[in-house]
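A reminder from the course coordinator: this example appears on the midterm review sheet, so study it carefully.

Given structure:
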């Protein structure tokens, strides 16, 4: 996700999200309206979350999921603000030097610039106009959140796989296409939702929309050295997916702490000080042996 700034030397490589409709153009977003896209495709989105894939393959379902909840959502939300974009504005082609063929990936490097244009377009709006725009965007936020949340809770499909993964064992550890696509959608939802709240400031803000939690994102944080209790605390404080993704790129192993035992403890093992052995740390140039 190119729009999220990363540390110079991130623990995890940047998220690379394949553009799934490149190999399945029939399920590409058609730009004819977000809410009715499933109907135009002849797909019952509610049935999908219940495990009924309606003769679609797992790859088809993920392609539909990305086309609707990423590209459709992004294009239509920006459209509400008067910004016209297409799918082509958010993909890039990478050429394989060995096989000399192009692979198509999702690219969000234009998003920060588009968000600035969004902010400019709202400066002269009346409060009533801002309310109307937020109401339209809220409908898209709600529908995407509901689909993602219910799908996240769906455990195993008819073929023995989690909705977002091809793996049946430890699926949240798997950097599968499904897990990557889910994370990219949740980050986009968080990014656009925050922008809508910031620019339109609705007085009666309807923003308490649960999207569920991304198990794969939590696993990335654990792999980076974060304590499971720290992660839970951040989630309880409503830290968005974009924030958690950024934090997952930090190398917390440099602190020299292992949180393996924290998974079976009610609290972080490093959250308690042994006052008999604790020594106050001083700056390198400090020569004092006391606190004064």
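Designed residues:
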């Amino acid at each position: 996700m190119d729009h999220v700034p990363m540390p110079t030397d991130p623990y995890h490589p940047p998220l690379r999200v394949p553009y799934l409709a490149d190999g399945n153009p029939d399920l590409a977003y058609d730009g004819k309206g977000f809410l009715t896209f499933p109907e135009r495709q002849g797909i019952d989105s509610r049935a999908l979350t219940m495990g009924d894939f309606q003769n679609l393959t797992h790859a088809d379902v993920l392609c539909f999921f990305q086309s609707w909840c990423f590209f459709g959502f992004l294009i239509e939300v920006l459209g509400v603000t008067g910004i016209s974009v297409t799918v082509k504005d958010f993909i890039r082609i990478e050429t394989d030097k060995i096989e000399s063929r192009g692979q198509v990936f999702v690219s969000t490097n234009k998003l920060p610039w588009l968000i600035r244009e969004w902010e400019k377009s709202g400066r002269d709006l009346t409060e009533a106009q801002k309310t109307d725009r937020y109401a339209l965007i809220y409908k898209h936020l709600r529908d995407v959140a509901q689909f993602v949340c219910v799908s996240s809770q769906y455990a195993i499909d008819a073929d023995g796989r989690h909705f977002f993964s091809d793996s049946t064992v430890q699926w949240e550890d798997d950097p599968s296409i499904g897990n990557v696509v889910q994370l990219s959608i949740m980050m986009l939802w968080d990014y656009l939702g925050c922008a809508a709240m910031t620019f339109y400031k609705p007085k009666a803000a309807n923003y308490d929309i649960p999207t569920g939690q991304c198990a794969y994102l939590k696993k990335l944080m654990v792999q980076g050295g974060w304590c499971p209790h720290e992660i839970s605390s951040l989630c309880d404080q409503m830290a968005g997916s974009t924030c958690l993704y950024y934090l997952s790129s930090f190398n917390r192993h440099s602190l020299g702490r292992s949180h393996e035992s924290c998974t079976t403890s009610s609290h972080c093992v490093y959250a308690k000080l042994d006052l008999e052995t604790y020594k106050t740390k001083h700056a390198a140039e400090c020569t004092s042996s006391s606190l004064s």
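The two ends are 47 Å apart (CA to CA). The chain has a mean pLDDT of 82.
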